[in-house]
Design goal:
The protein has about 300 residues and is an alpha/beta fold. Helix content is about 45%, strand content about 20%. The chain is built from 13 helices and twelve strands.
Length: about 300
């Protein structure tokens, strides 16, 4: 109870006085910097001394020096003030040049392979003080939980039926095609829908238990099923696996064409008709009106748009 009673006596203004007095090492200079009368600063310093049980500042010659205990308080006090400054500032606005909040983006690597590198470059160029965390969409975690719990600001994907309670922003649509090795028989003779279904397919590991990707969800709706013989959690490694085998990868043209430019791969039309893939970003209501969140979502939209124009 004593700790709680002590905590209740500390307010943010008192922390600001503490930090200013210790960094200025002068009550009079601290008063000028704080825009306060010197007696008020002296009174606040007395309260701080009573709370800490330490003199905090002691005279040394013509000046004042912080005690050892006071020196240990400088950085924690600065940290508290920085956190308090950011507590409500995001609601008022976000300046990328000076902002320090952390951006967390959850995304698989099945987007255009240039997307995430360019997004990080854009954020670090325009908001250089903001840390960035790129989070995977793993098989043991649901993207909705990431957003609801504040563990991610945005999730980027192309699920066929995103939860209706999440906000959605469209990024781009893409044609479904097949990526195969140059040695695949379909390159020479083509294939029927039946041959395509019977071929050996490689597919990404589901993002969470029971999840179905857009390809298999569409096939299931048609009463069809393809022959998936390999699953891989690392989507960006799949093209190399396809290049050295007779596996078939079915996904968006934009992703496939990036790899066909540098690996012995061929992009083929799918013999089974699919609707266009829709890639989008999802975010939770908790961050819908966040100035920093809106800035991040605009960055994502802009980078995605620029890639479509290449």
């Amino acid at each position: 109870m004593r700790d709680q009673a002590l905590f209740d006596k500390i307010d943010l203004h008192l922390i600001r006085v503490l930090h200013t007095v210790l960094t200025e090492r002068s009550v009079s200079r601290a008063a000028i910097r704080l825009g306060m009368h010197q007696p008020a600063v002296s009174s606040a310093l007395k309260r701080l001394r009573d709370l800490s049980g330490d003199p905090l500042l002691v005279r040394s010659g013509a000046g004042m020096l912080p005690t050892d205990a006071a020196l240990r308080m400088v950085e924690p006090a600065a940290s508290i003030l920085r956190a308090a400054e950011g507590l409500f500032s995001d609601a008022r606005g976000f300046d990328p040049r000076t902002g320090t909040r952390t951006f967390r983006v959850a995304a698989s690597d099945y987007l255009d392979p240039l997307f995430l590198p360019r997004l990080v470059s854009r954020i670090k160029t325009e908001a250089p003080l903001c840390p960035v965390e790129i989070l995977p969409l793993s098989a043991d975690a649901h993207y909705h939980a990431h957003l609801a719990q504040g563990e991610a600001d945005v999730v980027i994907g192309n699920w066929p039926q995103p939860p209706g309670e999440l906000h959605l922003g469209r990024l781009f649509g893409d044609e479904v095609v097949c990526l195969v090795s140059r040695e695949h028989p379909a390159v020479r003779r083509g294939w029927t829908p039946e041959e395509w279904l019977a071929a050996e397919h490689i597919a990404p590991t589901p993002t969470h238990p029971g999840a179905r990707g857009v390809i298999d969800a569409h096939l299931d709706g048609q009463g069809l099923a393809r022959n998936i013989t390999v699953r891989c959690a690392h989507f960006s490694l799949i093209p190399s696996m396809v290049a050295g085998s007779l596996l078939v990868l079915t996904t968006g043209r934009q992703f496939c064409e990036r790899f066909a430019e540098r690996l012995p791969l061929v992009v083929l039309p799918s013999p089974v008709e699919f609707p266009r893939l829709l890639y989008y970003q999802l975010w939770h209501a908790r961050s819908h009106h966040s100035a920093a969140g809106m800035w991040l979502r605009e960055c994502i939209r802009s980078v995605a748009s620029s890639l479509r124009k290449e």
